[in-house]
From TrEMBL, chain A:
It comes from Marinomonas ushuaiensis DSM 15871. The keyword Cell wall biogenesis/degradation does not apply. The keyword rRNA processing does not apply. Keywords: Amino-acid transport, Cell membrane, Membrane, Transmembrane, Transmembrane helix, Transport. GO terms for cellular component: ATP-binding cassette (ABC) transporter complex. One of its GO terms (molecular function) is transmembrane transporter activity. This is Amino acid ABC transporter permease. It comes from the Bacteria. It is found in: Cell inner membrane; Cell membrane. InterPro entries: AA_ABC_transptr_permease_3TM (IPR010065), ArtM/GltK/GlnP/TcyL/YhdX-like (IPR043429), Ectoine_EhuC (IPR014342), MetI-like (IPR000515), MetI-like_sf (IPR035906). GO terms for biological process: amino acid transport. It holds the Pfam family BPD_transp_1. The chain crosses the membrane at residues 20-42, 49-69, 75-97, 183-202. Residues 14-199 form the ABC transmembrane type-1 domain.
TrEMBL record, chain B:
It comes from Marinomonas ushuaiensis DSM 15871. The keyword Cell membrane applies. It is a peripheral membrane protein. GO terms for molecular function: ABC-type amino acid transporter activity; ATP binding; ATP hydrolysis activity. NCBIfam families: ectoine_ehuA. This is Arginine ABC transporter ATP-binding protein. It is found in: Cell inner membrane.
From TrEMBL, chain C:
The chain crosses the membrane at residues 20-46, 58-81, 192-210. It is a multi-pass membrane protein. Residues 22-210 form the ABC transmembrane type-1 domain. It comes from the Bacteria. It is found in: Cell inner membrane; Cell membrane. Gene3D superfamilies: MetI-like. It comes from Marinomonas ushuaiensis DSM 15871. GO terms for molecular function: transmembrane transporter activity. SUPFAM superfamilies: MetI-like. Belongs to the binding-protein-dependent transport system permease family. HisMQ subfamily. One of its GO terms (cellular component) is ATP-binding cassette (ABC) transporter complex. This is Amino acid ABC transporter permease.
Length: 220, 257, 225
């Protein structure tokens, strides 16, 4: 096979990979925020549910979660297509790690900020969303960036439930053409490029969000 | 005498096993300026933080303007205050912190306008006009659009004062507002307070280690030790003729007399 | 499909088989960790090399390994290395892949651990005229190890949880075993759930173990013989 042909097939796979990331990432972020906030502020029974979700998805491995959702749920009468299984499994998995990012970032906002917002008589909701969260968000960006890269890497697992992502395309090309060196070399480079692009955007986002927080010590 | 604006009755406060106040009684009259001095760890900050509802109490009552701070009437009985009651009571109070606690993600102007707009529902125009006046008062009119992290410590604290004043509290709590500052920046902050009390009457409760300032500004000085008022009186009396040994020792150490 | 009840008899039948496959999983994790720690140290020390070229290239190698999927790295080693005349069994491939991947992560842990040693310690070692090797062996590592335990432990647990990917190159570890059992019996519920529970139990145990290890570890460091 021509090198150009190989690359073009692989690029098709890369598009699928990006699609999965684009769907799983929002799910992960929603899970991270909702369960991170529940874990911090909700009453005991809800907290327990959040802890169960977090421990379960962090304690077992992503591939097993993917298989469970794809192969086991049909036994419960819930049949979902491979793509949905992939997005749900990866979104919930990365989301569970994200809860700890959200929690850690909120807790790292200096206590004085919370106290000043009480002294100014903001309501609990205003304190969280107007004072604490904008500062916590800045702290969240770098670890969320790392998680996003973990997500890109984890999408390769979906090739094992027959989704035609970048890794799947590579594996099937390798099985048929035997040009394994070029194929896997290109694939590694493509993943690397995706991760670097992601990192670039994250860095820019961090810069924009940290306006005013720049030289911040705790004594603001 | 009228009802005191602040009244502590048999207040008890513990941190776990440590008892800070065992049976604390204290009154402040309206428009009175009271300085609290005393060794560190004696409970001065805790006193202000209880008033600002940053710490709860374990016994007794506190009245603010004749109404209980930490309790509310419910079906004819006093029960622990809920959030709504605390929200109402906090309207009386404003606080300036030792470490400023400005919001680093907001400009100076927004630090000052945010609470009046969001909490009191004042229009943006009105809040901004008032912020400009306050910035003028603290001498920072040109810093409205700066971020806190671009200001010096003294400037930050002056914004802190303006931010607290913007909520028009009837009681102002100042907790060692110059302790975190380099010595040469202390006076620019104290001058703001001096001007403030010259122009308007305030009930002010301030914890300070600046003895000359306490002497000059206060109506009454309280010397605090181990969670109790050891001695109190007119500044002249406390600073020139302290009666208690502990007060003398403390003042000697501080003033090097 | 009437398979949504939990079949205890089937589970008990499957359990010992999965348990025997757990040995393979644990072996891969153990060997992978050892290799990862070695690679991590190598990368970390190379990042302190006096040559800027070496420092920079190692930085990019580590960055590359960290930002590409383990699964693809496994495939790369398994399918591409034979082209260079290096054929490895699934287990050996797995150990190398896990070791390289997590070695890259660990190098950052080790690097910041070594950077955490005060400058005075290095200067003292120099004043005593210790060789570079002795400085690391006797002065730096004994002090650096304790603070590195939690992060290192977490990465080893993370590695453990990625071992199921070795099923993709037919290593007969827990997940691969569960898949085979599942497809033979047309029942995935019990085998997959069992594997999930095994991972949960093992990682909780490991987290507890690491915590204990850190607590027991002498604060003043220890001497490497
Ligand atoms: N949140 C807290 N938890 C436990 N102990 C506290 C807390 N806040 C203050 N304390 C203790 O209460 C005592 C009084 O503290 P504080 O009111 O800050 O003293 P001051 O302001 O006079 O220096 C100190 O011994 C301090 O250690
Ligand atoms: Mg204090």
């Amino acid at each position: 096979m021509e090198f150009g042909e190989i690359v073009s097939v692989l690029l098709q796979g890369a598009v699928v990979t990006i699609e999965i990331v684009a769907m799983a990432l929002p799910l992960a972020i929603i899970m991270a925020f909702s369960f991170g906030l529940i874990r911090l502020y909700a009453s005991a029974p809800f907290k327990q549910i959040a802890i169960f979700y977090i421990e379960f998805f962090r304690g077992t491995s992503a591939l097993i979660q993917l298989y469970w959702i794809y192969f086991v749920l049909p036994f419960f009468g819930i049949t979902i297509d491979a793509m949905t299984a992939a997005v749900v499994a990866l979104g919930l998995n990365i989301g569970a790690y994200g809860t700890e990012v959200v929690r850690g970032a909120i807790q790292s906002v200096p206590k004085g900020q919370f106290e000043a917002s009480i002294a100014l008589n903001f309501t609990a909701t205003q304190r969280l969303w107007r004072i604490i969260m904008p500062q916590a968000l800045v702290n969240m960006i770098p670890p969320f960036g790392n998680l996003a890269i973990e997500l890109v890497k984890a999408t390769s697992l979906v090739s094992l439930i027959t989704i035609g992502d970048l890794t799947f395309k590579a594996k099937s090309l390798a099985d048929t053409t035997l040009q394994v060196g070029e194929i896997f070399g290109v694939v590694l480079v493509l993943y690397f490029v995706m991760a670097q692009c992601l990192m670039f955007f994250i860095k820019r986002l961090e810069k924009r969000l940290s306006k005013g927080l720049g030289r911040g010590g705790i004594h603001s | 005498m009228s009802t005191p604006i602040i009244e502590f009755k048999n207040v008890k406060k513990c941190f776990g096993e440590t008892v800070i106040f065992s049976d604390f009684n204290f009154k402040v009259e309206e428009n009175e300026i009271v300085s609290i001095i005393g060794p560190s760890g004696s409970g001065k900050s805790t006193l202000l933080r209880i008033l600002m509802t940053l710490e709860g109490i374990d016994g007794g009552y506190i009245n603010i303007a004749g109404e209980s701070l930490w309790h509310m009437l419910w079906q004819g009985q006093y029960v622990p205050a809920n959030n709504k009651h605390l929200h109402k009571m906090r309207n009386h109070l404003g606080m300036v912190f030792q470490h400023f606690n400005l919001f680093p993600h907001m400009t100076v102007k927004r630090n000052i306008t945010e609470a009046p707009m969001r909490v009191k529902g004042i229009s943006r125009e009105e809040a901004e006009a008032s912020a400009e006046r306050l910035l003028q008062l603290v001498g920072l009119a040109d810093k409205a659009d700066s971020y806190p992290n671009d200001l010096s410590g003294g400037q930050k604290q002056r914004v802190g004062i303006a931010r607290a004043l913007a909520m028009k509290p009837s009681i102002l709590l100042l907790d060692e507002i110059t302790s975190a500052l380099d010595p040469e920046l202390v006076d620019e902050v104290l001058d703001v307070i001096r001007n403030l009390v010259k122009e308007e009457s305030f009930t002010m409760l301030l914890v300070t280690h600046e003895m000359y300032f306490a002497r000059e500004i206060s109506d009454r000085v309280c010397f605090f030790d181990k969670g109790a008022i050891v001695e109190e009186g007119k500044p002249e009396a406390i600073f020139t003729q302290p009666q208690e040994e502990r007060t003398k020792a403390f003042l000697n150490a501080y003033l090097g007399q | 499909m009437n398979g949504f009840h939990w079949d205890w008899a089937f589970m008990w039948e499957v359990f010992p088989i999965i348990l025997s496959a757990a040995k393979v999983t644990l072996l891969a994790t153990l060997l992978g960790s050892i290799f990862a720690i070695v690679m991590g140290l190598v990368f970390a020390l190379l990042r302190r090399n006096s040559s800027k070229t070496i420092r920079l290239s190692v930085y990019w190698v580590v960055e590359f390994i960290r930002s590409t999927p383990l699964l693809v790295q496994i495939f790369f080693l398994y399918y591409v290395m034979p082209e260079f005349g290096i054929s490895m069994s699934p287990l050996v491939t797995g150990v190398f892949a896990l070791g390289l991947h997590y070695g890259a992560y660990l190098s950052e842990v080790f690097r910041s651990g070594i950077d955490g040693i005060e400058k005075g310690q290095w200067e003292a070692a120099r004043a005593l005229n210790l060789s570079k090797l002795d400085t690391y062996k006797d002065i730096v590592l004994p002090q650096a190890i304790r603070p590195m335990i939690p992060a290192t432990g977490n990465y080893i647990i993370a590695m453990f949880k990625e071992t199921p990917q070795l099923s993709a190159i037919t290593l007969l570890e827990m997940l691969q075993m569960a898949k085979i059992i599942g497809s033979e019996n047309f029942r995935y519920l019990e085998p997959f759930t069992l594997v999930g529970v095994m991972y949960l139990v093992f990682s909780l145990l490991a987290a507890f173990g690491i915590h204990q290890l850190e607590r027991r570890f002498p604060k003043e460091g220890f001497s490497l013989k």
